[in-house]
Amino acid sequence: MLIDRDTRVLVQGITGREGSFHTRHMLSYGTKIVAGVTPFKGGEYIENIPVYDTVYEAVSNHKIDASIIFVPNTRAVDAIYEAVDNDIKLIVVITEHIPVIDFARSKLYAKSKGARIIGPNCPGIIVPKERALLGIMPDSAFREGRIGIISRSGTLTYEVANSLREYGHSTVIGIGGDPIIGTDLLEAVHMMDNDDDTEEIVVIGEIGGDMEERLAEEYKKGLISKKIVAYIAGLTAPKEKRMGHAGAVVYLGRGTYESKIKALNEAGIKVAKTPYEIKDLL
Amino acid sequence: MKLYEYQGKYIFKRYGINVPNQIDIDSISDKGVKVVVKSQILEGSRGKRGLVRVTDKPLEAIDELKKQGIDKFLIEEYIEHDKELYIALIMNRDKASLSLVSSSNGGVDIESQSSIFIEDISLDRGVKDYDIIKLYKYLKIGRFEQLSALVRALYRIYTDLDCELVEINPLVYKDDFIALDSKIILDDNALFKHSDLLKEISAESKLDRMVRLDGYIGIIGNGAGLTMATMDMVNIYGGKAADFYDIGGGATADEVRSALLEVSSIEGIKAIVINIFGGITRCDEVAEGIVSALDSIDKNIKLYVRLTGTNKELGYKILNDHGIKTYDDVSSMIKACVDANR
């Protein structure tokens, strides 16, 4: 799903601290990284991967299917536009603290050009069966299997994945903790619903926004066929306080814990009270 | 970052939104002119808490409010009005657009209202006359040009300054629209673009990793989701979380140390739960940070630590060498903590 062992990957921001560290990690996992970009670092190599000044030069020299962005927040949006303009159709944005309105505009642009963004502020995607990792997840928590996980959180994803190791994982996607994200919960669930390797879907949500409520509506209508188990973080979070994630804020009564749980319950989706109880509901 | 009312009104004025005339604190007296004394704090519900006073004895009111610990005031002319309205711009996350939200019943909790006006404005096109005509027909107050100027100013504030929320509640009409209050929340992620403005309104941007809560069990975690889940579990099992502290990804020993010092200095704190899943974060680094803080924190505060992931064994060895008990199972750790610290 989304990526496999043959997906040819570009790393934007490959020479930075995070970019180079995770390039090494993704390569050792099995990801097929073919090129990197950092302006004015063209000609260098990171782990034998050639670095270019622009995405244009990278796509002129390599076939590229997907890009992963580690560019710092002040320039990450430009990196998204650059990937979109060079016809890259899958863009995973790891960078956190990207200005929300700027990202929102880049998302609309990407959509108009047919590109899919995952993130920002996300741990990426891992498909254990394919040994494909486009992200920063610690691979020790994951193994090939039948459970798909979609999460708005980073570390909580690893925690839950780790607790489900006995079942194994088909695809795990961190969709990101920001108010606006490229691929939302519902889209990701539909992808997994259509994925042959996924038998059951675990959704890790949190307060803020109404993605969980919209998922519940679709589920209730019977538009999703696979079993879903959900966990929502933030039961006891105070209102209008940003709980670490920019996306985890409740305004105007939208996206409260109660409204999410109510919607999920009414749709017949089982909700775990703590992340450690998810495995008992599968 | 939430701005104070007076900072928000400074921005309103610059964008042409009417606000009540401000009165210089040195020029006021208790001689019978009705004014509004408004406590400048960032928390809401000031009216309900008696922190906004309509009075002809402002000096007296200020003295009283000072006794309640308020140190910043905004003093304004009193605007006679009958109807209170509400207007705001907020992000529509689903559509990546802005929502123009309004109500002809302002002043009260907007959340509890059934008939509010919501119009989505795509960031691609910006606000247009037809958006405003819809709102004009809903509110049925003032002249169209006046409402148009107001809405366009709000939109420009929102997009120019990278806001999360721009809200006027209450908004009143007296010959023109007047913002009696202001609430502006800036997008923390975009503050780096607006350092000039922040300087101008003397707003300091500081990243607050800790959210204060009112319980007695401290919470430290890495990653927002895991930290929130840990906080929830403490509360679910019958304890009361004192804070939410996310050390973020790849925290150094120093950062862990300062987290521990900050959380342990919360008044009335009895215990601290530390829950870490090491990915980029290294457990030995976390353990070093915990150990280095031990001498500076009250011995009566008990620590409940669970580390897993990168360098877990190293981390546990460091902690156990210093006599700190560690746990493998999060649920039983939190239960133990809650039971021992009722």
Using a beta-carbon cutoff below 8 angstroms, give the protein chain pair with the largest interface and the number of residues from each chain.
A-B, 63 and 57 residues
The share of residues in helices of chain A is: 25-40%
**What is the subunit organization of this protein?**
heterodimer
- What is the ordering of alpha helices and beta strands of chain A? EHEEEHEHEHEEEEHEHEHEHEH
Largest β-sheet summary of chain B: 6 strands, antiparallel
- Please report the total strand number of chain A as a whole number: 14
Task: Report the uncertain regions of chain B.
Answer: none
Which whole number gives the mean pLDDT of chain B? 92
CATH class of the largest domain in chain B: Alpha Beta
Number of helices of chain B: 10
Average the pLDDT over all residues of chain A and give the rounded result. Answer: 94
What number of structural domains do the residues of chain B give?
A: 3
CATH architecture of the largest domain in chain A: 3-Layer(aba) Sandwich
What structural class do helix, strand and pairing data of chain A support? alpha/beta
What summary fits the major beta sheet of chain A? 7 strands, mixed
CATH topology of the largest domain in chain A: Rossmann fold
The first-to-last residue Cα distance of chain B is 35 Å
- Which strand-content bin applies to the residues of chain B? 15-25%
Name of the CATH homologous superfamily of the largest domain in chain A: Succinyl-CoA synthetase domains
Residues in helix, % of chain B: 25-40%
